[in-house]
Amino acid sequence: MAVDMRLPSVRKQVTDSLLSATTGKHLVVPGDVITSDTGFMRGHGTYMDEEKLTASVAGEVERVNKLICVRPLKTRLTPACRSVEQEISLLYH
């Protein structure tokens, strides 16, 4: 029985200048290293892997001061508490 195996290939990194010139956004996929600088705090959509901040979801990198998050490209609707309270008040009034 013959088995064909392929090793994963190394992806070419897209340079920031090329990416920002075409889209103006820094897009990542799960497993992409966002930064190796330890001065940043990790936010939603990120995790620390061997002292590197890594994306856990596909999306756009957002930075607010020292906090780095990845805003997912596709999400499910999660209603806010106020909208639920408003719906309940409309039902019972």
Automatic annotation (TrEMBL):
Q: Which Gene3D superfamilies match?
A: 2.40.50.100
* Pfam families (alphabetical): ECR1_N
Q: Which UniProt keywords apply?
A: Exosome
Q: Does the keyword Mitochondrion apply?
A: no
Principal cellular location given in the protein's record: nucleus
- Where is it found, in Gene Ontology cellular component terms? exosome (RNase complex); nucleus
- Know the name of this protein? Exosome complex component N-terminal domain-containing protein
Q: Where in the cell is it found?
A: Nucleus
Q: Tell me the SUPFAM superfamilies matching this sequence.
A: Ribosomal L27 protein-like
Q: Which residues form the Exosome complex component N-terminal domain?
A: 27-64
**What InterPro entries does this protein's entry cite?**
Exosome_cplx_N_dom
**Organism annotation:** Albula glossodonta
Which intervals of the chain form a coiled coil?
none
